[in-house]
Fold this protein.
Amino acid sequence: MTELAGKLTEMDWKKVEDDIIHFIAVAVSEAKAEGVVLGLSGGIDSSVVVTLCVKALGKENVLGLYMPATFTPADDQDDAKAIAHDLGIRTHLIPIGQIVDKFLEIVPMKERNRVAVGNLFARMRMVANYYVANSVNYLVSGTGDRSEILIGYFTKYGDGGADFLPIGHLYKTQVRELAKHLGLPSRIADKPASPQLWKGQKATDEIPIDYPILDQVLHGLFDIKMSAGDVAKALNIPSKVVEIVQRFHERSHHKRTIPPMPSIPQELLRPS
């Protein structure tokens, strides 16, 4: 267990910071964009990403969007505003709940499935991000981390919709370490994760295991290429837990790829 954990946390965080800053600057430059826009939730991922975007592009080229619902905790809203204030970036408030309510009023679906409505919130935020970005020639910066990406813990065409993912290569536990390196407040660096798609939602209620162990499982499976049995043995956890993580990954494959299509007919590939 110690060996796996150490590989995640023993990193040169200044180099990680510098590499991401370079990545952001290159992504924006190559797209000939003038800056970036991203949603600010007050959570760890968006707080780390907006901080790095400012370091890469300057505060005048970063725009943050507050997109709260009626159930968004006041503490999260306060943290999002505090981060934006400290960084000196421009922000816009878009009360996303009003848009979702109007959508649900217009669309003739009597069923109100909680997950479907929750995903609607995420997708409306994506629409707002892109409307603003397109209006000012900005890119949309995603805030997803590798833990979420590998198990599909994001909304397809929602928070998964972005032009680039600055921390998409880092596990959640690594993002927490990077947050501390960047000097973010502990209340944000240690805040429990939640997509805030419905009242009281917590990531730990939906993911197979909490991030400190989940990340070690993912690291063992996908970085070291260990078998499920070896991962379970190394971490002293039931093998069924590792198998559940594998199923999350397999079932979310479609979220990490472009939509499937038929193969090109062979006759079109043969010379005439």
